Amino acid sequence: MKALALLLLTTLLSSCATIISGTTAPIYLEGDVDEPLTIVTSHSEYNDVSLPTRVKVKRRNLDGQHIRISSENYAYSDIVLKKTFNPWSIASASMYGIPLVVDLTTHASENPMQDHFFITPAAPSTQADSLHRADSLRWAEMEEENRKARVLSRQLPERYPRHELRGSIGIGACQSDHDRNKIRDPYMERFNLGTDFQCGNIFGDAYPQAGAEYHYRLNRKWEVGMLANWGRYTESYFGKTGKWSTQNTDDMYDQSDMDVSASEDSRFFVIAPSVRYTWMESKGFRCYSRIALGALRNHNTFGYIVCDKPFDLIPFKDQKIVEYKDIDKIIWRATGQLTAIGGTAGFSHFQIFGELGYGSLGIVRLGASILF
Question: Is 70 exceeded by the pLDDT of residue 293?
Fold first, then answer.
């Protein structure tokens, strides 16, 4: 169990891009150079290097990084790197939300746009100083232009929508399971009940859910609001008593086990104050986490009927009911929601979103929001 828990924890907290690509990226240098070079990157300094060779650069702040090359006899222009997206991060995002967060934190989601370069001397060493000054001035101007462009592209507007209205649907097990199971499980064991038909639920008992939310954005990081959520779970069961013996029946139907039919209906309503924290935001995209604490009203009904003859041979109207029970309970309980990761994408006034978490909103949640 410890090994399984360790494997699960490793899977959740690791990521494809970070494991496969790492936090550094290789750069391959070739060229017609007949002298040893000194190469300086963001990762290390390489002395007395002959071409072709491979050096490493850090993936952090990859865009605009310089690779500086020098030698005793010649001057060389810097190599300036550009970044692109690492496709391995798509696998991380498809598996679960946490690996993608790891990739973004380690910057393993970034790749060099070009990783092969051909090196040629720019000028003899006698002209190195003047060339270096010219290159430095040119690169400084280019870097300033690039910096301004990056700032403008990433800069968030000073004025932004403060109010958000959401509608959403969710699936997966939720906190009303405890009340439902407490009523049902004794009879499940007694009658060995099984579902009439079930194809399997990936996220636990598949409660169809619908919800509505309102949030007010205090600032770029914090939001407060209120959520309401409705859900329902229904199921039918079939089993045998294993304890009854029939009487006054024809020999062809005489049996020691009587058929049992059961059904349940669980409906719940949740209302809770909610707080969200935005930990990453750019134009058109935002990642956040959420915590909510409130109240849950759970209305559970469960009933069963024990009949003296097999259901598949005798119509129900001709059956004799040996035992039956109807349970109807309304339970109030404290509830909450912990959203580990949520993300929104879209325009300034309309967005779609998805969430992964546990609590009163289920495991997986999808929806749309209007901002104003």
Answer: yes
In the numeric block, the tokens 């038909």 are attached to 197
CA distance 287 to 109: 16
Report the C-alpha gap between 372 and 369 in whole angstroms.
Answer: 10
Cα–Cα distance measured from residue 303 to residue 184, given in angstroms and rounded to the nearest whole number: 9
DSSP track, 172-201: S--TTHHHHHHHHHHHHHHHT-EES-----
**What gap in Å lies between CA 119 and CA 184, rounded to an integer?**
74
Q: Per the structure block, which two tokens stand in for 48?
A: 């007395």
Determine phi and psi for 199, rounding to 5 degrees: -95, 0
Closest CA to 143 of 55, 219, 82: 82
Query: Does 11 score more than 50 pLDDT?
Result: no
Residues 360/337, Cβ–Cβ less than 8 Å: yes
Measured distance CA(45)–CA(23) in Å, rounded: 17
First and final CA of the chain: distance in angstroms?
50
Compare 372 and 204 and report the one with higher pLDDT.
372
Q: Assess contact for 5 and 28: CB atoms under 8 A.
A: no
CB 57 within 8 A of CB 112: yes
Cα dihedral sign for 96, 98, 101, 105? negative
CA 227 from centre of chain: 21
Residue 168: both structure tokens together: 């959403």
Q: Which residues have a Cβ under 8 Å from the Cβ of 60 and sit 6 or more positions away? A: 23, 42, 107
What average pLDDT is seen over the chain? 80
**Cα(289)–Cα(341) distance, integer angstroms:** 5
> In 10 A of CB 362, how many CB atoms?
29
Give strand ranges (E) for 283-349. 285-307, 321-346
Burial state string for 305-316 with b = 16 or more CB within 10 A and e = fewer than 16: bbbbbeeeebee
Dist. CA 327–CA 304, nearest whole Å? 9
Q: Under a CB-based contact definition with an 8 Å cutoff, are residues 82 and 117 in contact?
A: no
* Secondary structure (3-state) at 170: strand
